[in-house]
């Protein structure tokens, strides 16, 4: 019987050594198999792995090859395959204890007490960032941050916490334990609200957000900047020229996943101030930018693959853009980016850039 | 959205013109013309569906009328999906205000009456339209008048905190002068906000600065959001007789599918008011 089964195959590139790689499918598989041709040619590492749903999430039947005693077959229960349903917001990964966070004007280093299992492009949120009732960096707790992974227990975030109101966290505090956890599906709908990390003033205004908000060129945006963050002149209201009419800006360039240029002359505006006072964190407001429309009339450019490309989003799974499973749309439109599929866990995903061939089934019958 | 209208629904929002507050004088010269401008808002249609495969033996032999109750469950699942999609979209797209009027020392804090005042003032200042006109006071014990109001969509888990604001500004729905205009899910009101509670309201568990659960309370004006259907495609219930399956025609299928898009049509008229609870204890 094969009336209701689902079969799919494809190729994916391993995003990072020892980190998960995800594959989006139009169904949740109950059988997955991968072949890593790069590892086979190198004669080292996991060359193939298999999973059936009854093995449990995280498991895999693994074939390894090497010149040494690791050659053979094994069964693992963590770091193997898992399935995902990226459909509901507010889902988080495991809570990880933080050993330290440095101060930096551009890239504070976060060190976790155990391996974090993150890949660059994942989005996280923090809690309990204080060492004493008056010191730490609670000012940034609750803000979503995209991470750049620098090691098994370290990653950086793009924020200026070098100000005098921040205190570095060190020595694995225990009362309370500072924590971080991944926001599993930070961009189910796009474009989304962005939290502002930095603003460069000038004849045009460059905005850096703490995580990708999938703003497009041609996007119309509005600002919500509390007075403590400085640049309130960008706020959409009040408008002293036309009462009640919001002031918007248009995005003329998107230079990275978290940086874009808005056509607003902000020369002479109050500088952006990330140096928030620790004691004011209860009820602290965050500086935000939201998409309010767009002036585009065309879809996503043809790049040699799909004839009518789907919207491409930073979805929090990695650093690159991923096409949604929806059809084509106007750039900058509010779009659905929900998805499902499977994850090749860090124990079987090989090394960065490995070529992995996969097939996935949802069988008619599983007993 | 009409059929054959493409994948993306486009809305137009006209911009205000500068009010002519400068007198013409007597020169006889007309003032410069204004250029009418508009904002465009695009929303991409997305398609959804789910279904069940039911063996003909079940249809033949089950005493409960399986097709009837499965149809009902599919209809409920579809309506829930519509609501959940819109809920998560609002969480994703609308800007937020952290509650600061509570006293639990967190960010956001638990709800204080000043938070309701702040969010209503914000929407009022942004010229948002309220959903409800007020309820005039009556000479009935224990009741009080209700202001014209925005709706706030909240979690049922916040009801104890709302009860805690009784006397400080919170008026339970039962204490309205008349319940005629109260909705079934309406829990009460604070100042210019009428509160609807649901167990499906968005909650980010252990996500506050101090590790408490964070509740997203969507406070919305009339013109803030839109939910768009695809013409001729909303609410399709699809039943396929076993005749269409396999050689022996053993399996029927019953399914629902629908299409929807959503957009913020006026970003200034909506805010997610984030809060925690006074205490994080919750009896499940």
Give me some keywords for this one.
heterodimer; A: about 375 residues; mainly beta; Elongation Factor Tu (Ef-tu), domain 3; 3 domains; six-stranded antiparallel beta sheet; six-stranded antiparallel beta barrel; 1 helix; globular; B: about 280 residues; alpha+beta; eight-stranded mixed beta sheet; four-stranded antiparallel beta sheet; about 30% strand
SSE pattern of chain B, N- to C-terminal: EEEHHEHEHEEEEEEEEE
Class derived from helix and strand content of chain B: alpha+beta
Shape summary of chain A:
globular
How many E-type strands of chain B? Answer: 14
Percent of residues in beta strands of chain B: 25-35%
- Biggest beta sheet attributes of chain B: 8 strands, mixed
- Largest chain-chain contact? A-B, 63 and 62 residues
Distance between the termini of chain B: 42 Å
Q: In percent, how much strand structure appears in the residues of chain A? A: 35-45%
> Averaging pLDDT over every residue of chain A, what do you get?
93
The number of distinct β-strands of chain A equals 27
The Cα radius of gyration of chain A reads 23 Å
Structural class of chain A: mainly beta
The general outline of chain B is: globular
Stretches of chain B where pLDDT falls below 50 for ≥5 residues?
none
Helix tally of chain A equals 1
Helicity of chain B, as a percent range:
10-25%
Q: Over all CA atoms, what is the radius of gyration of chain B? A: 25 Å
Total helices of chain B: the number is: 4
Question: How would you describe this protein?
Answer:
The complex is a heterodimer of chains A (367) and B (284). The mean pLDDT of chain A is 93. With 367 residues, chain A is mainly β. Chain A folds into 3 domains: 6-87 and 339-362; 96-183, Elongation Factor Tu (Ef-tu), domain 3; 190-294, Elongation Factor Tu (Ef-tu), domain 3, CATH 2.40.30.180. The two termini of chain A are 14 Å apart. Chain A is 2% helix and 38% strand. Chain B is an alpha+beta fold and 284 residues long. Chain B has a domain at 97-225 and 266-275. In chain B, the strands form 3 sheets. In chain B, strands 4, 5, 6, 7, 8, 9, 10 and 14 form an 8-stranded mixed β-sheet that branches. In chain B, strands 3, 11, 12 and 13 form a 4-stranded antiparallel β-sheet that branches. A two-stranded antiparallel sheet of chain B has the order 1-2. In chain B, strand 7 and strand 8 (193-198) form a beta hairpin. The radius of gyration of chain B is 25 Å and the shape is globular. The model of chain B has no long low-confidence stretch (mean pLDDT 92). The chains are: A mainly beta (367), B alpha+beta (284). The interface between A and B is large, with 63 and 62 residues.
């Amino acid at each position: 019987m094969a009336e209701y089964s689902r079969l799919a195959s494809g190729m994916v590139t391993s995003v990072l050594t020892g980190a998960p790689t995800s594959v989006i499918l139009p169904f949740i598989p109950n059988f997955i198999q991968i072949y890593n041709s790069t590892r086979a040619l190198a004669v080292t590492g996991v060359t193939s792995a298999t999973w059936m749903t009854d093995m449990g999430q995280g498991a895999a039947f693994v074939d390894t090859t090497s010149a040494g005693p690791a050659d053979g077959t094994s069964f693992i229960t963590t770091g193997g395959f898992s399935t995902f349903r990226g459909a509901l917001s507010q889902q988080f990964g495991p809570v990880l204890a933080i050993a330290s966070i440095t101060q930096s004007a551009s890239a504070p280093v976060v060190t976790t007490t155990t391996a974090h299992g993150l890949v660059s492009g994942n989005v996280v949120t923090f809690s309990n960032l204080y060492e004493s009732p008056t010191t730490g960096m609670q000012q940034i707790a609750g803000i979503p941050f995209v991470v750049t992974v620098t090691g098994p227990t370290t990653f950086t975030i793009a924020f200026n916490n070098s100000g005098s109101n921040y205190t570095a966290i060190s020595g694995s505090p225990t009362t309370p334990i500072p924590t971080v956890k991944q926001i599993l599906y930070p961009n189910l709908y796009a474009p989304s609200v962005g939290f502002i990390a930095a603003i460069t003033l000038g004849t045009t205004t460059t905005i850096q957000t703490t995580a990708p908000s999938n703003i497009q060129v041609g996007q119309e945006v509005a600002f919500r900047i509390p007075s403590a963050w400085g640049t309130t002149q960008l706020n959409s209201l009040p408008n002293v020229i036309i009462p009640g009419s919001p002031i918007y800006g248009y995005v003329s360039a998107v230079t990275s996943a978290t940086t874009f240029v808005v056509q607003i002359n902000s020369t002479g505006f109050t500088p952006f101030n990330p140096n928030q006072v620790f004691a004011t964190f209860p009820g602290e407001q965050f500086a935000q930018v939201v998409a309010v429309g767009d002036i585009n009339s065309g879809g996503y450019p043809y790049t040699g693959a799909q004839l009518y490309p789907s919207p491409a989003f930073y979805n929090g799974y990695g650093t690159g853009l991923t096409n949604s499973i929806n059809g084509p749309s106007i750039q900058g439109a509010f779009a659905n980016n929900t998805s499902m599929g499977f994850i090749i866990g860090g124990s079987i995903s090989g090394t960065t850039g490995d070529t992995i061939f996969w097939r996935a089934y949802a069988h008619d019958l599983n007993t | 959205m009409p059929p054959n209208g493409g994948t993306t629904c486009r809305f137009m929002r006209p911009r205000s013109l500068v009010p002519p507050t400068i007198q013409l004088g007597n020169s006889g010269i007309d003032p410069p013309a204004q250029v009418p401008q508009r904002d465009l808002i695009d929303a991409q249609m997305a398609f959804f569906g789910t279904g069940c495969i039911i063996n003909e033996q079940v249809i033949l032999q089950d005493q409960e009328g399986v097709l009837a109750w499965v149809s009902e469950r599919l209809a409920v699942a579809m309506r829930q999906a519509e609501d959940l999609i819109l809920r998560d979209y609002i969480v994703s797209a609308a800007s937020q205000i952290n509650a600061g009027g509570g006293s639990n020392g967190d960010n956001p804090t638990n709800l204080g009456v000043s938070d309701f005042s702040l969010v209503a003032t914000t929407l009022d200042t942004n010229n948002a339209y309220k959903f409800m006109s007020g309820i005039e006071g009556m000479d009935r014990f224990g009741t009080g008048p209700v202001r014209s109001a925005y709706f706030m969509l909240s979690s049922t888990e916040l009801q104890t905190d709302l009860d805690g604001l009784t006397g400080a500004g919170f008026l339970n729905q039962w204490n309205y002068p008349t319940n005629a205009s109260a909705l079934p899910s309406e829990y009460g009101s604070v100042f210019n906000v009428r509160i609807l509670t649901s167990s499906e309201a968005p909650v980010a568990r252990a996500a506050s600065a101090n590790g408490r659960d964070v509740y997203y309370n969507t406070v919305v004006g009339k013109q803030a959001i839109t939910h768009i259907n695809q013409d001729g495609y909303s609410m399709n219930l699809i039943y396929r007789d076993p005749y269409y399956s396999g050689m022996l025609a053993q399996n029927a299928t019953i399914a629902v599918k629908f299409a929807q898009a959503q957009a913020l049509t006026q970003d200034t008229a909506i805010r997610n008011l984030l809060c925690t609870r006074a205490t994080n204890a919750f009896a499940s």
